[in-house]
Amino acid sequence: SMEEAINEKIRDVASFLIPQVIRNIGLECRSVTSRGDLVTCPSGFAVTGCTCGSA
């Protein structure tokens, strides 16, 4: 269908552009480890993900 063709084209363009944008931004990631329920990012950094685990 026309809608499927449009969606496929959007996916094709996005799969090319998104990696380009990320390379141009120059992301610098840091891992932060902390016990308890409150963790903060270093100054100038923003939260991009969170993982909880048990040792």
TrEMBL record:
GO CC, one annotated term: extracellular region
Family: Belongs to the resistin/FIZZ family.
Pfam families: Resistin
Keyword Coiled coil: no
InterPro entries tied to this protein: RELM, Resistin-like_sf
Organism of derivation: Sus scrofa
Record key words, sorted: Disulfide bond, Hormone, Secreted, Signal
Protein name: Resistin
GO molecular function: hormone activity
SUPFAM superfamilies: Resistin (SSF111423)
Top-rank taxon: Eukaryota
Broad class of the protein's primary localization: secreted
